[in-house]
Amino acid sequence: MNLDNLLKDKTGFSSFKPGQKEIIQDVLIKKDVIALLPTGGGKSLCYQLTGYALRGTVVIVSPLLSLMEDQVQQLRSNGEKSVVALNSFLSFSEKEKLLSIDLNSYKFLFISPEMLQVDKWIKKLQSVRIDLFVVDEAHCVSQWGHDFRTDYLKLGTVKKVLGEPPTLALTATATKTVIQDIQSFLCMSEPVFHINSLDRPNIALKVEEVINNQEKKERLLELVKELRPPGIIYFSSRTKTEELYEYLSENGIDKVAFYHAGLSQEQRILIQQQFLMDQIDLICCTSAFGMGINKSNVRYVLHYHQPTQIESYVQEIGRAGRGGNQSIALLLKSKEDAMLPEFIINNELPDPEWVSIILRNLVDKYMEIESLSKIQTKEWMEQYPEQESHWRYLFFQLNEFLEKHGKLNDTSIEQCTELIQNRIDNRTSMKRSKLEELNKWTSTTHCRRKELLHYFDEVMSTPIDQCCDNCGLNMDIYSRELKVTTKSNVDEPVKWEKVLKKIFWQEDEN
Ligand code: ADP
Ligand code: MG
User: Are 10 and 53 in contact (CB under 8 A)?
Assistant: First the structure.
């Protein structure tokens, strides 16, 4: 098969981006592939084009609803009709309809790891000829699987139930450990690795220290007034996104919105769409925003709060400059916020003491537990209010214990408690050391790009002009008033044809 022709025919692109063709070639000869391509490197095309070259269906496991919706819409706006996302956004009747028809007529099926745990969907998928199983944003297996989205760790089993289709794992941020996690949890016995440079040379890196949070706020306003939009500002809490959104609005910044997981799904998708269509210029958001979102003209990503690890930072800043324009990633650092990441880490997993109390109460109530089905999980969750993700974590760990050791009772409770507590401790200390790495990076006086790449075991090849604050930056390039014109900082005109297609598709759906 001539892939270059297929590329032209299906996408109109004249050539592949680095790494794409090699990945597709290996997937087509039914190899399992773990592929690293930078943010904006064209990962979607790797499964899209492969899909057209295959007879059967491509199942894409995707972590977020908004991301799925975005990708479905992109495919549809390119004229692809046989695509559907199986997620909670579907109405009851839509779900019923999909369960009753032959899904083989769909080329691309997007689904979340959680939906892949639901019996009726698995049964349905067993009747589909799946020629490729894709895990997009595959670092989530490692980054979230161990904490609050444990269904990620079950994907290997799911794959087996679905007849072990060839698997393609795609990500832009994976250290060696993360790659190992992906390989083992997706049960890829002899995968081919396609590791490409993760560098984004058109994103300049800058860290600014401020004295306190008042100054941070003022500096934010200054920057937003100065920097050329569109931009994304990351915060570590929902309330802060709203607070700073209000502050910016009151101070004359318009076309700004806030976004976090506390908003309704409809609101979230609306804001995302408005941002994609340039109706909103600036988003104050938590990390819930932006994953995989393909907006080409974002000019800056500002961190009002830092994330807890380098991987997340690289993912988040990667949303800038996807169209190739010179862009900037700027992190604001204040001593007053120094404890925030630590606090977040401690809150991600349940308190070991709480685990011990719950296990004790479970044994007191049921005497002996052989399977989770014995537990009225809902009642317990109501009786001991605790973050839902903590409960999910506990049930996942308990289930694993039961599968391995048989029973939870007076004899085994100590072993079980210790096992889970150790896991929590190990995971938390691993996260602390990741945080330490990020902290080192924010305070380095050396080249930031070099160090960022080094973290992913990559050596920076050629020095670039707009690299980082430590190497020297010309901030005029990022200004609202085009003080300097470089070849890459003039935006392409809006492609109206595409925009209109999108609008019509939306109307079609309603
Ligand atoms: P990511 O790797 O971050 O998932 P995407 O798959 O969203 O990146 O692709 C980013 C952008 O690059 C999209 O607009 C896509 O259409 C474009 N793209 C992908 N492959 C090519 C190509 N071979 N030539 C030109 N543009 C491409
Ligand atoms: Mg992507």
Answer: no
